[in-house]
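User: Just a sanity check before I run the rest of the batch. Below are the structure tokens for the first item. I only need the designed sequence back.
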């Protein structure tokens, strides 16, 4: 029995000695084995636990492009600003590409609003022989009281000082016989071969506003006190009765020597230069702001001839 106990004690002592010896050997190995004691390729991936090598274990420049597999790095692997530092300068502009196909046509919109805001240049060389006009044909005729004509006038050429005594005139074509058509030749009645010929009016007539001063830029036509109309005979107009040369409302309501009734309607509206010596080598830019009616057609109409506008200055 005593021998058995002694043998067990001896075995434990030997085991302890081995443990101590191994522990001392590990410490010795860590202290004495360097990179020169390991052959190249001696340490492989399987010899290193996952996560065993950290950034601090690598010297600067140890990992280059050859050590990184293709397509394994993403934007998240790069430091902030690295992408911008890699962007080069902008290259030259490339050639223009071919023209694309035409798109579909858009809506025409409100024709009346379009026509009412267009600017036009009108010119006459000799107002006694010529008239240059913008002619608005209305989609539906309107009453005198519904006329809401506002336009802007800008004198852009004057051949000599005072060559333009007045600005643009206004002519309202009136369907006096109620046949749904305006047939009077109002421009020819002014400067045609036989001026003031009653036959040119047929069974209709017109109402005219003499132009305001050239210095007046914005003209609200109904309130201008210079409206007149051919007399009943059709060969001139009444210069005696003050009601026959007044605002549109007074002319329509109180002048008896005219060829229309107060309930007749307007079919045509014209903005006019010419028809008398009040215009001599002058040009105006006219912009119709409002009419008070829907426009069916706009035409630039001249009688005699449309003389080319001379150069500025």
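Assistant: Here's the designed sequence for the first item:
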């Amino acid at each position: 029995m005593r021998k058995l106990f002694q043998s067990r004690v001896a075995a434990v002592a030997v085991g302890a000695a081995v443990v101590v010896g191994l522990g001392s050997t590990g410490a010795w190995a860590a202290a004495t084995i360097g990179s020169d004691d390991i052959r190249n390729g001696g340490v492989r991936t399987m010899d290193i636990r996952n996560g065993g090598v950290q950034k601090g274990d690598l010297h600067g420049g140890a990992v280059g492009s050859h050590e990184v597999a293709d397509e394994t790095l993403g934007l998240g692997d790069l430091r902030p600003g690295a992408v911008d530092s890699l962007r080069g300068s902008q290259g030259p502009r490339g050639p223009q590409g071919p023209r694309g196909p035409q798109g579909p046509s858009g809506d025409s919109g409100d024709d009346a609003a379009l026509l009412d805001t267009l600017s036009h240049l009108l010119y006459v060389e000799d107002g006694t022989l010529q008239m240059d006009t913008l002619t608005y044909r209305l989609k539906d005729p309107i009453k005198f009281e519904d006329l809401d004509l506002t336009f802007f006038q800008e004198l852009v050429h004057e051949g000599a000082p005072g060559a333009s005594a007045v600005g643009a005139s206004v002519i309202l074509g009136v369907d006096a016989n109620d046949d749904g058509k305006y047939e009077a030749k109002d421009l020819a009645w002014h400067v045609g071969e036989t001026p003031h010929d009653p036959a040119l009016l047929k069974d209709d007539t017109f109402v005219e506003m003499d132009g305001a001063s050239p210095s007046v830029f914005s003209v609200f036509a109904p309130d201008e006190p210079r409206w007149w109309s051919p007399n009943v005979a059709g060969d001139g107009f009444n210069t005696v009765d003050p009601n026959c040369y007044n605002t549109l409302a007074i002319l329509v309501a109180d002048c008896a020597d005219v060829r229309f009734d107060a309930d007749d309607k307007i079919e045509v509206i014209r903005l006019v230069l010419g028809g008398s010596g009040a215009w001599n080598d002058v040009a105006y830019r006219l912009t119709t702001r409002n009419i008070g009616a829907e426009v069916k057609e706009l035409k630039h109409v001249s009688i005699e001839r449309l003389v080319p506008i001379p150069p500025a200055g």
